[in-house]
Specification:
Blueprint lengths: L5 E14 L2 E14 L3 E5 L6 H8 L7 E6 L2 E2 L5 H11 E4 L11 H9 L8 H7 L15 H14 L4 E5 L7 H16 L3 E6 L10 E6 L2 E7 L12
Parallel strand pairs: 3-8, 3-9, 6-7, 7-8
Antiparallel strand pairs: 1-2, 1-4, 4-5, 9-10
Helix pairs in contact: 3-4, 3-5, 4-5, 5-6
Length: 236
């Protein structure tokens, strides 16, 4: 990948949770940068800090200490208004469980986001981009797990975020269905969205430009894939 602008710059990020009298150190001094357009896979076992890191990058959680810069400017992590604006304008989320509204159609679920964003693409177009142009009027209960996850991806990319954050997006899916979901995520990255995907699956890590290995709240290895594979080339 050619040198591009840094979209996120992170220094000394820590996160400590107080569980009664016990302190849990979820992050222990994270330093990292994310280049614009990059596809990064966060790999590590449960409890290694992957989701905590992604939630802080996405503005869903606040660190105990450290700084988070977005396009060279520090985010005011203590300002609810600034963090809400940052999430709304710049971040798209995809979670393991689809978080769709059961009483709304696929189109209506996507429209929940597009109605709040000036630069959004129409819900119909977003659904077509993930291969669901013919399922717009179906409700979640009428769709498979993979289709529901692709609706969730359409919802995330419809507002054209700078950064797409995916937390175990294939965790509840079989291999073939998971590959279709990863193809939708890879397509979003190919359209210019900086993409970070959490997984505990080393095979999935092969579709990224770069792999961050986390353990015990630290990045223990940062490596670049010599050859980035297409989702259709992997099995797990």
């Amino acid at each position: 990948m050619s040198t591009t602008a840094v979209i996120h710059d992170i220094h000394g990020l820590t996160k400590t949770y107080n569980m009664g009298e016990v302190q849990v150190h979820a992050l222990r001094g994270i330093d990292m940068s994310v280049e614009e357009g990059e596809f990064i896979v966060l790999l590590g076992p449960s409890g290694s800090g992957k989701s905590t890191l992604l939630n802080i990058i996405g503005g869903l959680d606040r660190p105990s200490s450290g700084t988070l810069l977005y396009r060279g400017e520090p985010l005011n992590l203590d300002s609810d208004a600034e963090m809400t604006a940052y999430r709304r304008r710049h971040i798209g989320f995809v979670f393991q469980f689809y978080n769709l509204v059961p009483s709304l159609t696929a189109r209506e679920n996507v429209a929940l986001v597009t109605d709040l964003t000036e630069s959004a693409i129409p819900p119909e177009e977003a659904l077509a981009l993930v291969g669901l142009g013919d399922r717009q009027d179906h409700f979640p209960a009428q769709m498979s797990g993979g289709e529901q996850q692709r609706v969730a991806i359409a919802r995330a990319i419809a507002k054209q975020p700078d950064v797409l954050l995916c937390d175990e997006p294939t965790g509840a899916l079989d291999v073939d269905t998971g590959i279709r979901v990863l193809e939708a995520i890879s397509d979003a990255n190919a359209r210019g969205m900086t993409t970070l995907v959490i997984t505990h699956n080393a095979d999935i890590a092969r579709i990224g430009d770069r792999v961050l290995h986390l353990s015990d709240g630290r990045i223990v290895r940062d490596e670049r894939n010599r050859q980035r594979l297409a989702p259709s080339q992997i099995r797990w």
